[in-house]
């Protein structure tokens, strides 16, 4: 008779849960240690000590501090991008891109302040691959906004190049707003109101803009 196999799923699940808790603890420790400086100023041993694990345990989760930084960048942007995409794809007019996006960004900053503080620091002072990853994520958000503006028909008089420029302007404003919210969380209402006004001022000009597509073989020229 075949012997009855012992159930092993619960053990496997508990190991996976322990591994995820340790990974989460490492990420949180790195955020805390880098709060007063940046990722480049902390060491792997500091992170391991903070978590209460040996340095070799760190390598079972991340090959280096730089890879840990990349994981934090991905974690910081993933949910924000999904929320913004949902707003933009249901935004029929320019003002809906603004009025829908800004409160979502403010809420996300409020709920993930340490991540945004990390992004603000590492965007200018982090390791090269981390800076590149942050730039890539911002560019990805910009491209997604550009696509949704084009789909909405709100920029029917724009060339694809000008739609991309407009999206870049909007995202740049939003990034600046997020950094201000990190620096001064008590002034959220004022910062939001200022950003909304600034973006609406920008869009007053955008609504009147007409692109001129270049003739074949000629350079683009805008009126």
Q: How would you describe this protein?
A:
- There is one protein chain.
- By secondary structure, the protein is mostly helical.
- It has 2 domains: 12-63, Arc Repressor Mutant, subunit A (Orthogonal Bundle); 65-208, Tetracycline Repressor, domain 2.
- It has helices at residues 9-33, 44-51, 55-59, 65-88, 94-111, 113-125, 128-152, 160-183, 188-208.
- Helix 4 (65-88) packs parallel to helix 7 (128-152) and helix 6 packs across helix 8 (160-183).
- The protein is elongated, with a radius of gyration of 22 Å.
- The model is unreliable at 214-223 (pLDDT under 50).
- Residues 20-80 form the HTH tetR-type domain.
- Keywords: DNA-binding, Transcription, Transcription regulation.
- Residues 1-21 are annotated as: Disordered.
- Residues 43-62 bind DNA.
- Pfam families: TetR_C_46, TetR_N.
Topology of this protein?
Blueprint: H1 9-33, H2 44-51, H3 55-59, H4 65-88, H5 94-111, H6 113-125, H7 128-152, H8 160-183, H9 188-208
Helix pairs in contact: 1-2, 4-5, 4-6, 4-7, 5-8, 5-9, 6-7, 6-8, 7-8, 8-9
InterPro entries: DesT_TetR_C, Homeodomain-like_sf, HTH_TetR, HTH_transcr_repressor_FabR
Keywords: DNA-binding, Transcription, Transcription regulation
GO molecular function: DNA binding
């Amino acid at each position: 008779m075949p012997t009855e196999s012992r159930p092993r799923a619960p053990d496997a699940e508990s190991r996976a849960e322990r591994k995820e808790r340790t990974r989460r603890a490492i990420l949180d420790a790195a955020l805390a240690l880098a709060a007063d400086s940046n990722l480049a100023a902390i060491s792997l041993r500091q992170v391991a000590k903070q978590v209460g694990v040996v340095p070799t345990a760190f390598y079972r989760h991340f090959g280096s501090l730089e890879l840990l930084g990349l994981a934090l960048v991905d974690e910081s942007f993933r949910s924000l991008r999904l929320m913004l995409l949902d707003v933009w794809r249901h935004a029929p007019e320019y003002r809906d891109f603004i009025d829908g996006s800004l409160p979502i960004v403010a809420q996300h900053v409020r709920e993930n302040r340490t991540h945004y503080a990390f992004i603000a620091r590492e965007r200018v002072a982090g390791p090269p691959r981390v800076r590149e990853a942050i730039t890539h994520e911002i560019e990805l958000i910009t491209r997604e906004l550009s696509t949704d503006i084009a789909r909405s028909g709100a920029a029917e008089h724009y060339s694809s190049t000008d739609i991309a420029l407009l999206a870049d302007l909007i995202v740049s404003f939003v990034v600046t707003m997020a950094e201000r919210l990190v620096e001064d969380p008590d002034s959220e209402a004022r910062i939001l109101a200022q950003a909304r006004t600034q973006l609406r001022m920008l869009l007053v000009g955008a609504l009147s803009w007409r692109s001129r597509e270049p003739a074949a073989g000629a350079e683009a020229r805008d009126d």
